[in-house]
């Protein structure tokens, strides 16, 4: 992966590949789950420790092959009976459903070993399934150890195996490194089990994605695209309109109600939920956002926020963590909010910053209003009461309270509390200086126009101007 992060901690549609592998096996209700760790062990163990259920780890100090990795895990598990499933954390699309079907067949046929296989058009790099003339599984040969005839086989080993615990222990004790890579191959246990008269079976999946692993960024991108395609298909079947699934990205943890519409280039991440009838996009990113019913969000970026029913956001709005919009509220063009509550029906239509504020219901915030919340050391809050009006290009310097039904004149810098029903004006009185332009800017365009408009300057009528222009043209000719 060429990354400082463990391969299995890279994500597919918002979940790490490791979490996806654990989801698949946890769906079977195992008594114990062990993750074998090696390279970047500390990262993996830290991630596992944060999960809501207990996962054991076993450290493989030397990477001596898959057989050795399983042997390390068995040492931790001690005495075992029943079935043991071996999966891989870099096969992110494996499902619990497939493992359940594999386990059911394993029990039905009384097999001691079952391997998950698939028929693929290009088996390069995969181990091949060896069968006898009757179709019974004889073993697995790795690609590097296969002869020319075996390389023609297109049934591949996914690496996912199901064992009877006794057969697994016995097979591991007979492994050797007599192969092209000098490693202990777990797949050799199949041949050993077969030689000892144990039943070996194969469960073949037709969903080839469930057998594909990830070893580089290109493969990771393919997995993301495929899983996203599946998620979009699922939500469209659930009554969501997705205009362009190819440019719409949805995390696994997102929830959508009926009649939601997602327009192109919409990204829904984390624990985002969207209520019925809302239209999202185009070009919207929502991360951990709760969106109510019948909302409209366009060309905006929203993080860790709540948006009430019927609210409007954008275009080009940025809602940072802690933003809460009431029902029918509006946050418009080039507005940024942070840690603020904007009440029902309140409007911040354009070009404003709202930080650490509480804005009451029905408030109107004019264009260019700034909530100055930071004094260079600490953040402070501003409260704007219900029905208040804040004129354009005003600055509200926190800490500050503006009461219900008050009015702030445009262009004001407000530093003191404003009482209910009061008009607050925080600006210098306008003073007009006669003839200033003509005296101080006489040679500019403004100065010439001012001089022409000055009292006492002869003004030509339109007809006179036309006659003068005609005469000038005749002289030029």
UniProtKB/TrEMBL annotation:
Note on cofactor: Binds 1 Mg(2+) ion per subunit.
Alphabetical UniProt keywords: Acyltransferase, Cell shape, Cell wall biogenesis/degradation, Cytoplasm, Magnesium, Metal-binding, Multifunctional enzyme, Nucleotidyltransferase, Peptidoglycan synthesis, Repeat, Transferase
Example of a GO cellular component annotation carried by this entry: membrane
N-acetyltransferase, as annotated region: 239-477
Annotated spans, Pyrophosphorylase: 1-217
Ligand binding (acetyl-CoA): 367, 373-374, 392, 410, 427
UniProt binding sites for Mg(2+): 90, 215
E.C. numbers: 2.7.7.23, 2.3.1.157
Catalyzed reaction equations: N-acetyl-alpha-D-glucosamine 1-phosphate + UTP + H(+) = UDP-N-acetyl-alpha-D-glucosamine + diphosphate; alpha-D-glucosamine 1-phosphate + acetyl-CoA = N-acetyl-alpha-D-glucosamine 1-phosphate + CoA + H(+)
Annotated region described as Linker, given as residue ranges: 218-238
Co-factor(s): Mg(2+)
Region spans: Disordered: 438-477
GO molecular function per UniProt: glucosamine-1-phosphate N-acetyltransferase activity; magnesium ion binding; UDP-N-acetylglucosamine diphosphorylase activity
Location of the active site: 350
Biased composition (Low complexity): 459-471
GO biological process: cell morphogenesis; cell wall organization; lipid A biosynthetic process; peptidoglycan biosynthetic process; regulation of cell shape; UDP-N-acetylglucosamine biosynthetic process
Domain Nucleotidyl transferase: 5-210
Pathway participation: Bacterial outer membrane biogenesis; LPS lipid A biosynthesis; Nucleotide-sugar biosynthesis; UDP-N-acetyl-alpha-D-glucosamine biosynthesis; N-acetyl-alpha-D-glucosamine 1-phosphate from alpha-D-glucosamine 6-phosphate (route II): step 2/2; Nucleotide-sugar biosynthesis; UDP-N-acetyl-alpha-D-glucosamine biosynthesis; UDP-N-acetyl-alpha-D-glucosamine from N-acetyl-alpha-D-glucosamine 1-phosphate: step 1/1
Residues binding UDP-N-acetyl-alpha-D-glucosamine, per UniProt: 7, 60, 65-66, 127, 142, 157, 215, 320, 338, 353, 364
Location relative to the cell: Cytoplasm
Function, as annotated: Catalyzes the last two sequential reactions in the de novo biosynthetic pathway for UDP-N-acetylglucosamine (UDP-GlcNAc). The C-terminal domain catalyzes the transfer of acetyl group from acetyl coenzyme A to glucosamine-1-phosphate (GlcN-1-P) to produce N-acetylglucosamine-1-phosphate (GlcNAc-1-P), which is converted into UDP-GlcNAc by the transfer of uridine 5-monophosphate (from uridine 5-triphosphate), a reaction catalyzed by the N-terminal domain.
Family in the record: In the C-terminal section; belongs to the transferase hexapeptide repeat family. In the N-terminal section; belongs to the N-acetylglucosamine-1-phosphate uridyltransferase family.
Subunit description: Homotrimer.
Record's protein name: Bifunctional protein GlmU
Gene (name only): glmU
